[in-house]
């Protein structure tokens, strides 16, 4: 009998026999999420589905989004007062656009209880760590920099679904002073959500993701923007096929989020762009010279590399 695939936005029951990570009691008594969008909302749903959280409080800029989150059962309560929201919180997740991180850290710093652990889900790490070090003071020891490698081009609480993180990687970039207890809590929670835990330096994280995530998003946005600049854009879009849709799917992502990522990881992204532009110029030269063998060799090497990458580990 075939198993039905989960529908995004809806949680499915987990077979206890197939999930060794099911929590026997709540790992997190009180969870406070700043930014109840795709990532923050999906984390909340995953914790609820596993019975790993007692109460979820949502904080954000859009009351309409928070009302949606509460209606869908993503959060239990909406908070407007940070002091009240953070009272007795066990874990605080910052899932806001990177440009808001510094301000949110400054906002929460005076209200964190002695046991409260803070973590983030940002796509860059060096800037977040620097901001946390400055804003949190002594509480920085309980800040765990993290990046769940999961997502879709959708945003908002309505896009959240509990299965988003299953069999995906979580990158953790703890600092020398980061509390072992804090790391243990954060990684245990993400493991319950279905993630594999990897640890690396913040510098290496930002370099890697400038190449495998940030650059592809820039290319996708640019591809759509380029076509949109032609006078006959309406006709051009009428003739797009699967290739164009596949290439540009991620151009449906949040412009605000990707603006912040580009500014936060500026140096690494510039290096990635320089490498890509050099390759693109080489391909242009092959086309200009009508060099069929060179083009075929370039394309074959890329296809083979992709085939190796797609092989199961």
Structure description:
This protein has 2 domains: about 15-200, Rossmann fold (3-Layer(aba) Sandwich); about 205-310, 6-phosphogluconate dehydrogenase C-terminal like domain (6-phosphogluconate dehydrogenase C-terminal fold), CATH 1.10.3660. Mean pLDDT is about 90; it is low at about 1-20. The protein has a 6-stranded parallel β-sheet with strand order 3-2-1-4-5-6, sandwiched between helices. Strands 7-8-9 form a 3-stranded mixed β-sheet, covered by helices on one side. About 50% of the residues lie in helices and about 10% in strands. Helix 4 packs parallel to helix 5 (about 125-135) and helix 7 packs across helix 11. The chain is an alpha/beta fold and about 325 residues long. Helix 5 links the parallel strand 5 (about 115-120) and strand 6.
Write the layout of secondary structure elements.
Elements: E1 28-34, H1 38-49, E2 53-59, H2 63-71, E3 77-78, H3 82-86, E4 91-94, H4 98-108, E5 117-120, H5 126-136, E6 143-144, E7 146-148, E8 169-172, H6 180-192, E9 196-199, H7 202-228, H8 233-238, H9 242-248, H10 255-264, H11 266-288, H12 292-310
Parallel strand pairs: 1-2, 1-4, 2-3, 4-5, 5-6, 8-9
Antiparallel strand pairs: 7-8
Helix pairs in contact: 4-5, 7-11
Descriptors for this entry?
2 domains; alpha/beta; Rossmann fold; single chain; 313 residues
């Amino acid at each position: 009998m075939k198993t039905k695939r989960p529908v995004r936005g809806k949680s499915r029951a987990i077979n206890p026999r197939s999930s060794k990570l099911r929590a026997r009691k709540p790992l997190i008594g009180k969870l406070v999420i700043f930014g109840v969008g795709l990532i923050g909302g999906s984390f909340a749903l995953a914790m609820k589905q596993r019975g790993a959280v007692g109460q979820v409080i949502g904080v954000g800029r859009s009351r309409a989004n928070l009302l949606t989150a509460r209606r869908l059962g993503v959060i239990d309560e909406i908070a407007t007062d940070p002091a009240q929201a953070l009272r007795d919180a066990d874990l605080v997740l910052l899932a806001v656009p990177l440009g808001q991180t510094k301000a949110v850290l400054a906002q929460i710093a005076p209200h964190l209880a002695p046991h409260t652990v803070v973590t983030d889900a940002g796509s860059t790490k060096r800037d977040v760590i620097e901001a946390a070090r400055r804003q949190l003071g002594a509480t920085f020891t309980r800040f765990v920099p993290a990046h769940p490698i999961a997502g879709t081009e959708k945003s908002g609480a309505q896009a959240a679904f509990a299965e988003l993180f299953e069999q995906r990687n979580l990158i953790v970039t703890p600092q020398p002073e980061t509390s072992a207890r804090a790391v243990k809590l954060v990684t245990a929670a993400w493991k319950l959500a279905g993630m594999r835990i990897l640890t690396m330096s913040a510098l290496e994280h930002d370099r890697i993701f400038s190449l495998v995530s940030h650059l592809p998003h820039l290319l996708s946005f640019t591809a759509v923007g380029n076509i949109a600049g032609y006078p006959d854009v309406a006709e051009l879009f009428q003739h797009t096929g699967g290739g164009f849709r596949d290439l540009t799917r991620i151009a449906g992502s949040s412009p605000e989020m990707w603006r912040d990522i580009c500014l936060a990881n500026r140096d690494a992204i510039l290096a990635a762009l320089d490498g890509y532009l050099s390759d693109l110029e080489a391909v242009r030269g092959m086309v200009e010279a009508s060099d069929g063998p060179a083009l075929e060799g370039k394309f074959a090497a890329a296809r083979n590399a992709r085939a190796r990458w797609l092989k199961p580990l």
